[in-house]
């Protein structure tokens, strides 16, 4: 029987990006937030300055030189104790998990915890893992491992992640949502289409120069006071890095609603694994009588239906409009597992 060899790496360049993303494609949780380029760029800016003092704990396991699993972690002082968190925690990465195939998951996690517990250079008191998908096998496996090791363990819902299942035409989608809301979406989209102001849905091409498009998107974000506060200079640099990389890799989806030739609303998503992941949006306060945010979301969902995307994932947050458009709750979880003292 081969033994899994765990290694603590110094940086993301010690694993080939193609090898990393290839394993992710076969992993238990293949999301844009676990891709090599995202993880590396998040760490370089520590989530736009979310973490000031942290140490990378990037662990890879191999058998006969074959990459079996990756645990992208970091140690930081959190809630008055040194904790091991998933790289990408907490604010801007909606889904996080270990990177490992389902068949290897249990023994990889067990070996990982042995490695972490037996590494004297790593000083930590607990695992504190945010944004685990509610269907991730990591949840049950970590609970079982904690019980076996006599560790404390706590699991809780962290945030809802509403999603719209899509299968069929835009009319099929509309037929499945609440009647009043169905009529409202149709009415607002029709009113915009019939406006004398020439309302257009514009999808940014993959061949486009993305920099001015991102700047237009950020400008629209700042019309919301809360988003303007969130988008401080360090966060804007972080998001620019991430979104530029997603564009270069071919999975950035950025759409605008133009009214009278002016970008008035923006929808920024990841087009990944046959679904659209709704990352953020921005809406100008101009032409609110035409409901530009709602109209753009209607066009976005219509695009999904016409291009065979099986789901629109609103990701974290329980804003009312997500449910009015037919979102059904799933969740991301927070799990704390600690060594008993």
Give a summary of the structure in a few sentences:
The chain contains eleven helices and 14 strands. It is α+β, with helices and mostly antiparallel strands. The strands form two sheets. Strands 1, 2, 3, 4, 5, 6, 7 and 14 form an eight-stranded mixed β-sheet that branches. Strands 8-13-12-11-10-9 form a six-stranded mixed β-sheet.
Describe this structure as you would to a colleague.
- With 341 residues, this protein is α+β, with helices and mostly antiparallel strands.
- The chain folds into two domains: 162 residues, Aminopeptidase (3-Layer(aba) Sandwich); 151 residues, Gcn5-related N-acetyltransferase (GNAT) (Aminopeptidase, 3-Layer(aba) Sandwich).
- The chain has eleven helices and 14 strands.
- Strands 1, 2, 3, 4, 5, 6, 7 and 14 form an eight-stranded mixed beta sheet that branches. The protein has a six-stranded mixed beta sheet with strand order 8-13-12-11-10-9.
- Strand 12, helix 10 and strand 13 form a beta-alpha-beta unit.
- The longest helix has 17 residues.
- The model has no long low-confidence stretch (mean pLDDT 96).
Helix percent reads: 25-40%
Strand content: 25-35%
Question: Could you describe the largest sheet, including whether it forms a barrel?
Answer: 8 strands, mixed
The level 1 CATH classification of the largest domain is Alpha Beta
CATH superfamily of the largest domain: Gcn5-related N-acetyltransferase (GNAT)
The CATH topology label of the largest domain is Aminopeptidase
Number of helices: 11
* Shape designation: elongated
């Amino acid at each position: 029987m081969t033994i899994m060899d765990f290694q603590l790496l110094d940086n993301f360049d010690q694993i080939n990006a193609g090898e990393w993303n290839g394993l992710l494609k076969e992993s238990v949780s293949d999301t844009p937030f676990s891709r090599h380029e995202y993880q590396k760029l998040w760490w370089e800016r520590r989530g736009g300055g979310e973490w000031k003092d942290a140490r990378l704990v990037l662990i890879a396991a191999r058998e006969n030189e074959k990459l079996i699993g990756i645990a992208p972690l970091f140690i930081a002082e959190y809630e008055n104790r040194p904790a091991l968190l998933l790289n990408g925690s907490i604010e801007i990465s909606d889904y996080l998990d270990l990177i490992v195939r389902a068949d290897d998951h249990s023994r990889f996690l067990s070996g990982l915890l042995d490695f972490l517990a037996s590494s004297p250079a790593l000083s930590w008191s607990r695992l504190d893992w945010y944004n685990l998908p509610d269907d991730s096998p990591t949840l049950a496996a970590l609970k079982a491992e904690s019980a076996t090791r006599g560790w404390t363990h706590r699991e809780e819902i962290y945030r809802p992640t509403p999603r719209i299942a899509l299968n069929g035409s835009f009319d099929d989608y509309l037929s499945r949502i609440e009647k009043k809301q169905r009529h409202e979406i149709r009415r607002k989209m029709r009113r915009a289409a019939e406006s004398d102001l020439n309302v257009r849905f514009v999808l940014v091409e993959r061949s486009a120069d993305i920099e001015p498009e991102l700047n237009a998107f950020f400008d629209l974000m700042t019309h919301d006071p809360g988003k303007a506060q969130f988008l401080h200079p360090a966060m804007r640099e972080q998001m620019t890095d991430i979104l530029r990389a997603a564009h270069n890799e071919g999975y950035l989806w950025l759409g605008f609603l133009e009214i009278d030739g002016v970008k008035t609303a923006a929808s920024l998503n990841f087009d990944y694994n046959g679904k659209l992941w709704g990352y953020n949006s921005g809406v100008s306060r101009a032409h609110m009588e035409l409901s530009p945010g709602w109209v753009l979301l209607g066009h976005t969902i219509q695009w999904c239906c016409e291009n065979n995307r099986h789901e629109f994932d609103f990701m974290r947050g329980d804003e009312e409009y997500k449910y009015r458009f037919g979102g059904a709750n799933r969740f991301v979880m927070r799990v704390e597992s600690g060594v008993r003292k």
